[in-house]
């Protein structure tokens, strides 16, 4: 059988492209080397019946009504605003840094205007913002930088703040009020039945065939198809001809605690300066599931392993652009997604990129 499209990867990028192309009448084959759909957003119940995210917490948020309405075709939603605390000097503080963080940390009683003045007094002005260190010091100064950012960054990325592009730290705001939400997007929801159920509905079409535990490289020569949609690592596609693009990986240590209703006071606790792991997430906060026990995950950043995070540095972007130029010359293939576009995308950004890519192919 000849397919109109072969899609490599059944995560957000691949599934959205497959759904859009199939809805337009195209015959689509989706392959994934893993034994499940959903990519890193895949979720399942653990052996104790708690819904967990095997590849770490995935919390959906977006300001795009279009993207939210599109995904709403495949899931109901549970309203959820994620909250994070950071363990610093033996106590827990709201993260991102806000008025509560500063007052508690320094034993102050500042108003919102006082916090603005305080931050102005401690910040180290940087004329040109190039690195994440420039950005953080320019916003909050040395002490808050060292307590909340530098150690976490070193663990997460294996690099100092001064070695990362400013865009990494720019993802985390600083607030003068008491808003302790991690995100402030208009739409903050979790799929009511989980991500895997949403992906199943997305791929439920007579025009879509899914083959799991299937390596694209082992079957590409025997499958007839018109156009390729590739969502894997772009450097791997081109045989690493310019060298490997750097990625950061993670090890996940999952743990179930019987007869413990909650392990911690909020969904995620960061450990910027203590422990080998960067954070602990407790899934029942995210899902709203009722269960007499609870399940948590600790995240240990690694230099080697599955590619999770493109590392935002100028030299890495330059290397990616060489691969991107090859991709532009590959007329029978479209490259989309975090790995194929070497971008530190949020989930909604992947959906947006996939919708755009599919529109260009229909």
Automatic annotation (TrEMBL):
It comes from Caballeronia arvi. The keyword Isomerase applies. Signal peptide: none annotated. Keywords: FAD, Flavoprotein, Isomerase. Belongs to the UDP-galactopyranose/dTDP-fucopyranose mutase family. Residues 147-344 form the UDP-galactopyranose mutase C-terminal domain. This is UDP-galactopyranose mutase. Its cofactor is FAD. GO terms for molecular function: flavin adenine dinucleotide binding; UDP-galactopyranose mutase activity. One of its GO terms (cellular component) is cytosol.
